[in-house]
């Protein structure tokens, strides 16, 4: 049985190798439009490739897969993150888990995965045709029994996800480089909110909390031309009464001190100075804060509003939100409903995750599901 795989990226290679393992006699060809395959794997995770996540602490897949969570939940029964972990280790790629649950090759080098994939494709006699772009997948159907489309994110079919926010505020930008470890960021007027570390940059805001929020709000922000309000809770505490008590206690214990010299929620002094400046309180002492100013201070700490004025000037989009609609494919096999024998896996599907190894996990899982669908098709009587 002949299988063509269009796209020599993470999903394409993983599908090819697993299909070869399931069907040792399969004739498999990967078509890659670029001169070298696996380019994204190579540059991913800063060259270290955050290849999966333990999913420890993930209580709802919707939080890590804003699009495609239900399908991923079902597919994990077939090929879970733990299966991926075991797969790599049993194929000669020892892995390591970071404290944030992100999984990387122990070698801290994406080439560990590329070398594994190249070794396995050679071992199974999988053909790799580089510099060979394929136009219409069905054009290959006369020569192949099955086509797997793994062409990755298609910007024309979706919108970017995982980007940082431009915020035109020179005083904020002067705080660049400051990381606030525990922030809640949200888009007022929507239910979109994310938590995590925030990094102030010279163009606005970045860091895991912003990338996560950009993923949740990818379509909303695209529809609003990347202009939207943004609320930051610098304390990471959701209950404003708790914040009120913390602030009141700090003010009481430090009555004679200048506000700028106080330490609240471990906010770095430059940032604290900037925040106080927004309220015109930089010259005040703690004892000079009246009840009105206290309310404004609490509101600033928990609901500090900004205007997102665009995406960052850099091309830091990691994934595309959008792709082949899940309604157009069989939900158990990922086969096209319109054209049998054409399958889809990886980022070409309308499935995408937040940062942390979730996108590669989607590629491994969907590629495995397709390999299994094709191999079981063969074993049918
Ligand atoms: C800078 C960067 C860093 C990232 N880091 C991480 C990370 O650490 N962890 C994580 O989980 N995710 C990360 N991602 C996301 C991750 O790389 C993708 O989700 C993943 O590569 C998707 O795999 P894929 O095989 O579906 O697509 P791709 O890896 O994009 O592969 C698609 C392949 O298809 C080829 N192709 C496209 N069209 C055709 C055609 N018509 N004919 C033939 N070939 C074609 C492309 O050239 C490409 O080689 C990162 C992304 C970027 C951009």
Alpha-beta content class: alpha+beta
Could you tell me the radius of gyration in angstroms? Answer: 25 Å
The overall number of domains is 2
CATH architecture of the largest domain: 3-Layer(bba) Sandwich
The helix count comes to 12
Helix content: 25-40%
Largest sheet: 7 strands, antiparallel
Shape field: elongated
Structure write-up:
This protein is of the alpha+beta class. The chain has two domains: 2-159 and 317-379, FAD/NAD(P)-binding domain; 164-315, no CATH class. It is 34% helix and 19% strand. The protein contains twelve helices and 17 strands. The chain has helices spanning 10-22, 39-47, 69-75, 81-90, 111-123, 170-173, 208-216, 218-223, 240-253, 269-279, 291-302, 358-379, and strands at residues 2-6, 27-31, 52-53, 95-97, 102-105, 127-129, 146-149, 158-161, 165-166, 179-186, 193-200, 204-206, 228-233, 304-308, 310-311, 319-322, 342-344. The strands form four sheets. It has a seven-stranded antiparallel beta sheet with strand order 14-13-10-11-12-9-15. The chain has a five-stranded parallel beta sheet with strand order 6-2-1-7-17, with helices on one face. A three-stranded antiparallel beta sheet has the order 3-5-4. It starts with a strand and ends with a helix. The mean pLDDT is 95. Flavin-adenine dinucleotide binds at residues 6-12, 31-34, 37, 39-40, 43-45, 49-50, 133-134, 150-152, 318-319, 346-348, 357-360, 363.
In short:
The protein is built from 12 helices and 17 strands. The chain has helices spanning 10-22, 39-47, 69-75, 81-90, 111-123, 170-173, 208-216, 218-223, 240-253, 269-279, 291-302, 358-379, and strands at 2-6, 27-31, 52-53, 95-97, 102-105, 127-129, 146-149, 158-161, 165-166, 179-186, 193-200, 204-206, 228-233, 304-308, 310-311, 319-322, 342-344.
